[in-house]
C-alpha cells in the first residue's frame, strides 16, 4: 500500500514537471524562487498528497443550493468491508459467548455431584462467590477490555499499522481463551481457589487481545470506503438527482458493522448458555475459541485486498504539544475567561504554523492538520458524557442477569434473557437504516448525530426506570421479601417483562453507541483514527470504574436504588450533554467538510519521492490546501524552514 502511495505521488510529480515546462517565463521565474525556498522541514516528516491528486472532474460537486434541496443518500459499501464485518462477527461470538456464562460461573455454587458446572434441571455454577463478587469481576473485565484499546490504538497508529496490530492481538486473545478453558476443566473447577486464579489470569490476557483488536477493527472497516466529499449522482431507476453523502455511507457501514457484532453476540450467547447448562463450562469456553479461529484465516486470505493506512510515527505527541501551546497562549486564572478562551476559534487559529514566526522543531505539520486536531478535540469532549450512558448498558451484563434468576423462568436459563438485546438490535438496525432515517430526511427533519445521541441517553434512562419498577415488584411479591436472591422460590413475575429494558437499551445503542463510532471516525485525522476510536471505547472503562463504586448497591435490598440511581444519572447526563453541545449541530457540515491535511506523520526513512511530494505542494499552488493564503506565505514558510 505504501509503495502504491509513493508511486502515485511520483507519477503526479512527473505530470507536474510536464505541465511546468509549458509555463510562461514569469511563472518559471516564480517557480524558481519557490524551489529555492523549498527545503525538507524535518528529516522524518512525510506528507501525503494522494487525496489532492483526485480528479474533481470525475465527480459533480453539489452547489450550495443543491446541498439544501437534494436528498442525501448512502454510497456503495465496498465488498471487502463485509469480510471485516464477518471477522468482527466471529470475534464478538467468541467474546460474548464466553462472557455470557461468567455470572453463573462466578456467582452460583457447583451443582451437587457435578464436575463440570452443568445442571440440566437446575442452576449451573462453579465458584459460589455470590452476586457482589460476580458483579465486581464482570465489571473489572469490562473495564480492562476498554482500557487496553488505548495501547492497541497507539501501537496501531504509530508502529505496526492497524492490520498487523489486529493480527498480534489475536495471538493474545487465543492464549486467554485457552487459559479460560483450563479453568473450567473438571480437574480444575472442583478446586474453587485454583479455578479462580486460572480464570483471573485468563481474563487479563484475554482483555489484552480484545483491546488491540477492538480499537483497530472499526477504523479498518471504515477506511475501505475512499470518498470523503459529497457529490451529485442521477439515480438510474428514477432519474432523481441525489447527493451521495460520505457521512451517511460511513454511518451505514457502522450500522451494519454493529449489526454483525450483535449477530455474533446473539448466536454465541444463546448457544453457550445451553452448553454450560447441559455439558459444562469447559464447552462454553471451547466453542467460542474455535469460532475465533476464523478471524486470522479471513484476515490472511484477504490481506492484499484491504486498504490499510501505514503507521505514522509519533503523531499523538505532536497533537498534545499543539494543545499545550494553544492553552498557554490563552491561559487565564479566571475559570470563566479560560473556558471562553478555549471555546473561541482563536484558540486554535493562533497556533497554526503560518501564524508563528519562530516555529518549534516539532511543528512539522500544516495549518489544515491544526483544523483536524481542533475537530477531534471537540469530538473527545462529547465522549466525556458517555460513561453515564454506559452505566445503563452495564446493568445488562450483571445485575439484570441476576434479577432474572429471582423471577419465574418457565424452563429458560436466567442468562439467556440477555439475548433480547442483540436480537432487538438485529431487528431494529435495518428498520432505522431503511425506514426511520430516510423517512425523517424526506420530511425535512435533520436528525443530526448530537440529537441521536441525546435521544439514546433518554431511552437508556427509561430502560432503567423499567428495571427499577420490576425490582420493586420483585421485592413486593417474593416469598422472601426484599431478599429474593437467597430464596428458593422465585417471585411470581414472568421473566419476559425484562424485554422492556433490554429492547429500550438496544434502540438507545443504535442512536448513541453507533453514532459514537461514526462520530469518532469522521472527526479524527487519518493518522489518529484508531486512537480516537480507543478514546471513545475508553469511556466504557470509566463507566466500569463508576459501576465498581456502585457495587455496594448490587445486592438485596438495595437494587431498587441501584437501578433508580443509574436512571437519574443517564437522564441528567443526556440533558447536560445536549445543553452543552447543541451549538455543534450548526457546525456539523463545516466540521465534516474540513479539507484533509497533507501531513501524514513521522517515519524513520525519507526518500526522494517524499521530497518530490513536498516540492509539488509548494510549486503548484497547493499552498492553499496547506492553509496558506498566498504563495508569499508559502515561500516565507520555506525560508523559516531554512532558519530552523
From TrEMBL:
Q: Determine if Transmembrane helix is one of this entry's keywords.
A: yes
Name the record gives this protein: Oligopeptide transporter
Annotated Gene Ontology cellular components are: plasma membrane
Q: What is its main location?
A: membrane
Family, per the entry?
Belongs to the major facilitator superfamily. Proton-dependent oligopeptide transporter (POT/PTR) (TC 2.A.17) family.
Upper taxonomic lineage? Eukaryota, Fungi, Dikarya, Ascomycota, Pezizomycotina
Where does this protein reside within or beyond the cell? Membrane
- Species the sequence originates in: Aspergillus chevalieri
The Swiss-Prot or TrEMBL record annotates one GO molecular function as: dipeptide transmembrane transporter activity
Q: Which residues cross the membrane?
A: 168-188, 194-213, 253-275, 281-302, 376-396, 416-432, 453-475, 495-514, 535-554, 560-579
Q: Answer whether the UniProt record assigns the keyword Transmembrane to this protein.
A: yes
